[in-house]
Write a structure and sequence with these properties.
The protein is of the alpha+beta class. The protein has eight helices and 19 strands.
Amino acid sequence: MSDVVYDVVVVGAGVEGSAAAYYLAKRGKKTLLLEQFPLPHSRGSSHGQSRITRKAYQQDFYTEMMHEATDVWRQLEKEAGWEVFSQTGFIAIGKYKGNYLDNNASSLQRNNARFEYLAPQDFRRRYPMLRYPDDYSCVADPEGGILRADKALLAYQAMFQKYGGRLIDGAKVTNIRRGNIVTLETPNASYRGRSVIICPGPWASHILRPLGVKLPLKTMRITVMYWKERDNDRHTPSKLHPFYDHGVRGCRGHDVYGFPSEEYPGHVKICLHYGPEIDAEFRDQADDKWAIDLMKEYVREHFPGLEPSPSIVETCIYTNTPDEHPVLDYIPGSRNIVIGVGFSGHGFKLSPVVGKVLGQLACGEKPSYGLNPFRIDRFPLQASL
């Protein structure tokens, strides 16, 4: 065992853990970041070339957080020297004057964010590549856009190390021993920290249950699909903004999200915001044919400028809570072990603020944002100590 005692040890070098480590190292804290897999890898939730970012949320607390998150993304890309955030704009799609669009507009207005609430005829005029019922429209968020996910993760990790942090990959934490100084065991070495932040992604249950923490988490495999644009079609959606379609008809009430042609030339990324439940260790054993079939119907109905079958299929993992809000809190019985879990498929954009508040908790400080929506005790029977 090393004699070194870190101020904070962060477990998990996905986007949330890397953001927390970056925040702490930038503050001058002696910080260790441990990752179970050799980096880079594509086995969790943070890989890939793109994620949506937006201020358009139904909940005020997310819109409020996204003001600072957007500023930090801009600062991070300046520090790293490469693009992380492309401000293309974003649209939330739903029924005109329905709860979803009204709530987005209200939250944006209350938080002094720019937006447009389009009437249905303006929605159809501005987005001729889409085909929706006459009572559908959108809330346009001009400050949203695309995060370059792989580049963003690399930026966090590179700047973390530039500020003096230590990153060790291929170091799976097999045991955590509580105490005033927390000890973390891996197959090759043990490490010690005054505080620990655990951001295990889809491996949350594996690492938390030995600590007596049981959360109602559902790990799902998401089928990431890319659809080829038809040549010379007037409906080609090349100029489409990133979008989120709330509870579209024909997808069993599940939401859909998508991006313009960015990652693969001539291909639009459109995915079901849902998938089969899995164990992260066996994600490729899940059957996702039903998800692909649902999306074929969706694309055929709403995107006439795309081929109705995906030509590229990849995978990602969500770790969902019942209310789709993450847990950002201390584990029961320990004021020096903090967890960030259950981001439910929308945590990447929030990571600058998530990393900050997790770091503040680990330092024993009052967080910059109210964390009541993210408390661990909102779920019953979460601990069995």
